[in-house]
Amino acid sequence: MLEKLETLRHEAEADLASITDMDALQKVKHDWLSKNGKLTDLLKAIPTLPAEQRRPFGIGANEIKTMLTEKLASLEEDFIDQAGSGIKLDLTIPGFDITQGGLHPTRQMRDDLNQAFMSLGFEIYHGAHICTEQTAFDNLNFKPDHPARETMDTYWIAGTEDKSADERYCLRPHLTGASVDYLKEHGAPARFVYPGMVYRNESTDPGHERAFYQYEALIVEKDFSFSSGRLLIDTILERVFGKPIETRMRAGYFPFVEPGFEIDMRCQVCGGKGCGVCKYVGWIEIMPGGVPHPNVLLAAGLDPMEWSGFYINIGLDRLVMMRYGIDDVRLFHSADLRFLGQFK
Ligand SMILES: [Zn+2]
Fold first, then answer.
1. Pairing between strand 190-193 and 308-314?
2. Residue 119 exposed, middle or buried by CB count within 10 Å (0-12, 13-18, 19+)
3. 8 alpha carbon – ligand 1 mean position (Å)
4. pTM value surpassing 0.85
5. Distance between Cα 215 and ligand 1 center (Å)
6. Full residue range of the structural domain in which residue 66 is found
7. Is 286 inside a domain boundary?
8. CB 343 within 8 A of CB 108
9. pLDDT above 70 covers what percent of the chain?
């Protein structure tokens, strides 16, 4: 039996020596190492041998296996190298141009605002994109018949129309609902921003989109004065624009604030002289806000006699338009790289 092993060893060596190309190599590999190969048959025979022969036979068979496996692998590597050496390399050909990406201008503005607010101790909070009618309207002192609740403004989730306010869902039409959620979770005092996408069922025009970014901030403290809020806005704008920005405050009505205001900033496109972007008035409306309405504080579980605060609801796209002097908001959502590539 051991003589048979020697014969096989010689046979294997002869087969290896005869290999001249990849095809021959694959054939030898198949003949010896496949499921029905010669070596497999040999190993299967071991249990049938007399006990004293099994060990030397096993060792010998394994030596042949190791020899075949190693030699075949090394030959295979050689053939692959030879095949590759036919490729001619021309190292003088110029490389590919690497295009560097950039952040979307709205994203850059959001990041800059985050930095400005964080430097004043604000936390960043992310609310849910799908929320209940309770969160979007009831908590914010919207009366049951307020027109914003109707389908013309808000995208309602099908199948929940007949449910009560805490089970009727919509795509958030504004961010403000998240402020009450945050206060319920964290209590007061609080200072936080909550940026994100909001959704309105509107027809698009140069100033309006169906989905757009908003950016809100809320501070809740005891005895927070209106003038501190104004100072906060001016500080943030100066940080973001890198220079003092002239602002003005007008009375404004929003259900969730009392008193409410509108903040206008000097049109940065024309410097206040009047242009198409500011509709020739020299000012542009960038953020409504005001003191949280007592009903909103109550919805958040806070005592309106004890707590006060200040909402800022920033039209993020407007601010980006002011930063770069862009007159059509739809360009930001166009995914046109010729446009977006200018804001790296
Ligand atoms: Zn202007």
1. unpaired
2. exposed
3. 94
4. no
5. 23
6. 2-84
7. yes
8. yes
9. 96
